[in-house]
Specification:
The chain is of the alpha/beta class. Helices cover 32% and strands 20% of the residues. The chain has 2 domains: 11-109 and 331-423, NAD(P)-binding Rossmann-like Domain (Rossmann fold); 114-324, FAD/NAD(P)-binding domain, CATH 3.50.50. Bound molecules: NADP nicotinamide-adenine-dinucleotide phosphate (NAP).
């Protein structure tokens, strides 16, 4: 047989997950010097992962990344096999038999738990559910969020918390020309929320927002950003953190909080978005649904950049009927693939998957949030995927066991035997075109299909 990576014997790689890290891995493989065929497997009928169903609808610029993914998908070496679930429709063992290597780029689909009593009360939601719901993700399409309360609480001060609280703070006019799902816009139009509390367990110098995202709260049509001057008093360790040149983003965040604290409240605005610090939920209380949150006041302890929140034992209560936990994502295990339970990632060495004994698992690679945890912006995934693909290409000789692989053909055969019809990239282009067409009369970039059956009916 010809050498692996030649036109006669191309390297066959299956990529599990069509989000940014999956596309960047495909790009790195297709642009490499060897001959490759890449099959990207996706659970939904639609590609692009969090760029489609995570990035906030009012951040359309961030979705420009899709333009690059479309170029990658145009390559004759790229193939999309969508609407199939690995571990259910196709096993990992079957992928190993059909392809020389498998790259897991399935992201972090679940949430970290707070671990406090009442966490699962009605009215207490994860950011994942809410973000998926307003972005029209089929898994969250039918969730119901009761926005008839005065007060909402968001736990966490990262960019997902910023997205959730901003969407709750905006008017319908500020959202109606985005690709927000219509069912979400209709519910938000009826919202009675007046106070949106965004609560951090550490101080204003440790908030994880990026400046651009926080600045947007100062520009909302009908919502005042509120921070008290008292809340902005810093300990010596936090002052020294902000003086560190490399920590310029945190300094900008702190300066923005200071600017918000000096603003006069505009009484013509009906909502307030209140940023509070040094508090951790201890209990969510309610009979059949959330009524109030017991919060413990924290202090910071530790050296600069290593400060952690320490409970003081002093509690306060905040009445609220709806709470969103936005404290970070975690991955979900795939049957047959090693998983680090406490970190919520696939254990790996620079993208080579490792087992419990730290031994490299042949054929298995990983990239993106499931490789390194849920951090960084969309572009961060490019370097992450490039690192993984470099390792994979270094291993080329080891991946060649002399046995002929059938790639996508083997996968199609298995699916056919189970009467499963995958969605290919041309099918997706039909769904895409129809969504864009549906958005046009409303002045929206697209009106997404939010049920899988609806998407599939377009491809027929
Ligand atoms: P994140 O940035 O890691 O923020 C998580 C927040 O939850 C932090 O404030 C963290 O506080 C807090 N937290 C964690 N455990 C907690 C607990 N047990 N109790 C209370 N608070 C807790 O995560 P994320 O907001 O989910 O964002 C994930 C990644 O996606 C980030 O890199 C983010 O920048 C990115 N993203 C970017 C955009 C954008 O570019 N527009 C939009 C959305 C997301 P500590 O700091 O104390 O741990």
């Amino acid at each position: 047989m010809s050498t692996l990576g030649t036109e006669q014997n191309p390297l066959l790689v299956a990529i599990v997950g069509s989000g940014p890290s999956g596309f960047y891995a495909a790009e790195a493989l297709i642009k490499s010097e060897i001959a490759v065929k890449v099959d990207v497997l996706e659970k939904l009928p639609s590609p692009f992962g969090l760029v489609r169903s995570g990035v906030a609808p009012d951040h359309q610029k961030l979705k420009q990344a899709i333009k690059l993914y479309e170029k990658i998908a145009d390559s004759s070496d790229f193939n999309l096999i969508a609407n199939i679930t690995i571990g259910i429709d196709i096993t990992v063992e079957e992928l190993c038999a059909s392809h020389h290597a498998v790259i897991f780029t399935c992201g972090a689909e679940s949430d970290r738990k707070l671990g406090v009593p009442g966490e699962d009360l009605k009215g207490s939601y994860t950011a994942t559910e809410f973000v998926g719901w307003y972005n029209g993700h089929p898994d969250y399409r039918d969730r119901e969020f009761d926005l008839s309360h005065d007060v909402a609480v968001i736990i966490g001060q990262g960019n997902v918390a910023a997205d959730v609280s901003r969407i709750l703070s905006k008017t319908v006019d500020e959202l109606k020309y985005t690709d927000i799902a219509q069912h979400a816009l209709d519910t938000l139009a009826e919202s009675k929320l007046r106070e949106i509390h965004v609560i951090g367990r550490r101080g204003p110098a440790q908030a994880k927002f990026t400046p651009k995202e926080l600045r947007e709260f100062g520009e909302l049509t009908d919502c005042n950003p509120i921070v008290t001057e008292q809340d902005l008093l810093l300990g010596l360790e936090s002052i020294s953190e902000l003086e560190e040149k490399s920590n310029v983003a945190s300094k900008k965040i702190y300066d923005l909080f200071c600017e918000f604290s000096k603003r006069d409240i505009d009484n013509n605005k009906s909502k307030q978005c209140i940023f509070s610090f040094l508090m951790s939920p201890k209990e969510l209380v309610g009979d059949s649904r959330l009524e109030k949150i017991v919060l413990e006041i924290n202090s910071l302890s530790g050296e600069p950049f290593k400060q952690s929140a320490r409970g003081s034992g002093k509690m306060i209560e905040l009445e609220s009927g709806i709470l969103f936990r936005s404290i970070g994502y975690r991955g979900i295990p795939i049957k047959g693939v090693p998983f680090h339970e406490s970190w919520g990632i696939i254990p790996n060495a620079k993208g080579r998957v490792t087992d419990n004994d730290n031994n490299v698992v042949p054929q298995f690679y990983t990239a993106g949030w499931i490789k390194r945890g849920p951090s960084g912006i969309i572009g961060t995934n490019r370097a992450c995927s490039v690192e993984t693909v470099s390792c994979l290409l270094e291993d080329l000789k080891k991946l060649d066991n002399g046995i002929k692989k059938s790639g996508a053909d083997a996968i199609y055969k298995i699916l056919q035997s189970m009467n499963i019809h995958p969605v290919n990239y041309d099918d997706w282009k039909k769904i895409d075109a129809k969504e864009i067409q549906r958005g046009e009369p409303k002045g929206k970039p697209r009106e997404k299909y939010t049920y899988i059956d609806e998407m599939l009916s377009v491809t027929e």
